[in-house]
Amino acid sequence: FKTSSCRSLEHVAGPEKEHWFTGNLHRLFKDGWKYKFDLFDKYGGVVKVYGMLGTQQLMVSDPKALYHILVKEPDIYHETDMFVMSNKLVLGEGVIATLDEQHRKHRKMLNPAFSLANMRKLLPTIQPIVDSLAELISAVLPSDGSTQEIDIISWMARGTLEYVARAVLGITLDTLDTTKTNAHADAIRAVNHTALKIYYLRPFVPFVMRNFSRYWRNKLVDWLPIPPLRELREISYLLDKSARSIIRQKKLEIDGHDDFDGVRKDLMTVMLRANMSTSDSERLTDDELAGQINTLLLGGQETTTTALARILYMLAREPDAQGRLRSEIRNAKQRFSGDGDPWQHIGLPYDVLVDLPYLDAIVRETFRMYPPTNMLNRTCTRDAVLPLQFPVRSATGEEMIAIHVPAGTNIIISVLGSNHEKRVWGEDASEWRPDRWLNTNGERMGYGKGVDLAFEQDSAAQDVEGLPGCRNGVRYPGVYGSMMTFLGGGRACIGFKFAEMEIKQVISTLLCRMHFSLPSAVNANGVKKEIYWRMDGLQVPVVRPPHGDFKTMQCPLDVRLVREGDFL
Ligand code: HEM
Predict the structure, then answer these.
(1) Ligand 1: residues within 6 Å at CB?
(2) Which residue, 196, 275, 306, 453, has most beta carbons within 10 Å?
(3) Is the reported ipTM for this assembly greater than 0.95?
(4) Separation CA 481–CA 492 (nearest Å)
(5) Whole-model pTM?
């Protein structure tokens, strides 16, 4: 066994460069599912790929290497300059636009707010919003029990924005009221879409941010003949203005309530109160708080929306799983329904909801198989050695147990590769099999709130051997059941428990009232409508031609009111 020794990545094996400008990135980021799996099969947990203008990068899914990158040596492997600066430019100085000490300060304020105790308090805020969503969808379903095709993703998107708005920020964005428009909500929806139109400008952002004052940046945007740049500036202004108005309003509310005990059910108030009473050196400025609001509104949007759509799609594809899950939810709700209360309208308490075994298995398995974000970047800030769990072959055929990573190397963390690694998840890693998370009695296999959080703290003491994603003493350093979907270490997703809660609440509410199946529409030539999930940077459901353009995000499912025969 050897360690790659030279100060370049020449020794590391990987595919040929495929384009002088984009290297292999266009293959990885545009519907790259098959391409990526071919690379993992051929090269293993570390693959050299080519980035912009032929720069050599590493795509990593090896568990020990990821442990080093995210948990052991995060001071070496930073978020990329491009990511941090672009976030700062558009969203302001929220947690994802910060590094090192400033990042620690942000997390110190965010971590307690997103605690389990606060999730328990927030569920009752989310429940009525989900009920309204279910009523709105039910209202468009035929009362005779026949099916109606519905683009489920647009409904899910309405919901996810409102859950975060009300539960995290204590405001409404009116997204469930189809008669109202809301400029703030429109701006949030437009950010990613508009930024994508000018993604090619992102490499220049750090230079511009460091060398141009705000005045000259504005002049640049005025002069350049690129309209989406101006659109993004307008969006960014509107987000900033709205966030500052939320802060002002909340401060007034807090000032007016001396007896206020933090029971108010939104996290931003909890955070603001903590911020107001902390020491000067730890206190976040209003600029940072405004950035935080924008980050929280954006962070859980598309990710949670596509995760919800993916779960409903899987249940539509697997009717037995759908029936079994619906029955589990009915049994749980019936236990809590009083005399005469229709069980469908019962809201389960937090601990009952998150512990439902089959619901949990479905959610975890879908997160594992189909992570909403499948690639994340880090940059190596100084020469380093990356040890590997599973040796890889060098470009000249030798086995390597570690890799020298030169300073400046970009690292692509492959969430997809990690979540499908057979040596950790088993030979059936690429099968959607929710039962892997359950024991033979149908109970959850040890994963729970404790273990998930223990992973965050990298508690090696936790006995997790034999659980899914833990094999022969090897596991991934993820915060959520060993998978890398929400990442791990000090920059792991702050909102994973919130996302889990909202997803479980939505699925458990919708399934009681409706049944989902794949679209049945056929065109004049008898061709059936088919949904296809593109794996770009984010997972994107589209419709194949001739029914769709293979580009626009949509997830049309046949939906009808539930019948007795839909339970097991
Ligand atoms: C299915 C839903 C979600 C997925 C798959 C997801 C995934 C992730 C991932 C992979 C990261 C790490 C990004 C990086 O380091 O480059 C992250 C960070 C983050 N997420 Fe989530 N997320 C989800 C939902 C949410 C929700 C609901 C919120 C808030 C309400 C949220 C807030 C954040 C924040 C603030 C960060 C930045 C943390 C930091 O830099 O310290 N996420 N998320």
Answers:
(1) 95-96, 107, 164, 168, 295-296, 299-300, 303-304, 307, 372-373, 376, 485-487, 491, 493-495, 498-499
(2) 306
(3) yes
(4) 13
(5) 0.94
